Amino acid sequence: MRDTPAAGAASVEPFIDAHQHFWNLAINPYPWLQDETVPNFRYGDYSALRRNYLPEDLARDTAGCAPVKTVHVEAEWARANPVDETAWLTQLAAQTGRPTVIVGHAQLDRGDVEEVLAGHAACAIMRGIRNKPVTAARREDARRGVPGSMDDERWRRGYALLARHGMSFDLQAPWWNLDQAAALARDFPDTQLILNHTGLPADRSEAGLAGWRAAMAELAAQPNVAVKVSGLGLPGKPWTQADNVPVIRDAIAIFGTERCMFASNYPVDSLVASYGTIVAGFRAAIAIYPPEQQRALWHDNAARFYRL
């Protein structure tokens, strides 16, 4: 299933990894990696992730195809004190140079959201927030107006505070909930929304991909939305170009080369591929574009959206 870290990834131009994670399980609280289990984890068994993952581990995994900068996205630190994760990452960045910038966590419908956002904003390398809103586990269960969802007025009041701090919003949601995201982006045009993991196109049937493309197109109609091309692994299968290059090209065709960016989702996606495999697959997918658009997809878009 695996190949060597740099296999097929040589000669890649300087690039930014717009989505990666670190954790130190010996000193920090990550319930999902320590004493809890995520039911129905999208890649299946994730026990291989229950180990420290730090800058030296990323350096090993990216040997021969290392990003010049990285965006660290919150890694499900225990929710009581999310600013503590930002403080730890700030120290890590000062000591090692990784990560370059941070997307932290704030529960947008929690009573202390203003205090939490202010705490994050005090960090010079903070760029945005990820909060996973309530979504439906299956397409047929998708409903509008659910408490804790992107339609929830209390949740939206928290979202409205992001603009005050100049923060972007990273959204992880399945494609059948992207109608809510389109409405959110429309109603808050001054907040940059960045969709994680290509809208989670896990269902690769003809009908599933058609639904995903339609949902992505509805979201792409809002000019303040961008997408990270990442998280394309399929449970129980190795990451292959045959599976994923068409999906990558569809996403870029829908959003345009100016609103898509490369991201690895490492080390989570180490469950399905080496870093080099993901890099090589993205390179193959974007080879149809001229060099200046390839540079945007690899580097310039992430630099712009995350103010690098």
TrEMBL record:
Annotated GO molecular function terms are: hydrolase activity
Which residues belong to any copy of the Amidohydrolase-related domain?
16-308
- Domain of life of the organism encoding this protein: Bacteria
- Give the residue spans that cross the bilayer: none
Q: Which family does it belong to?
A: Belongs to the metallo-dependent hydrolases superfamily.
Listed name of the protein: Amidohydrolase 2
Recorded source organism is Cupriavidus taiwanensis (strain DSM 17343 / BCRC 17206 / CCUG 44338 / CIP 107171 / LMG 19424 / R1) (Ralstonia taiwanensis (strain LMG 19424))
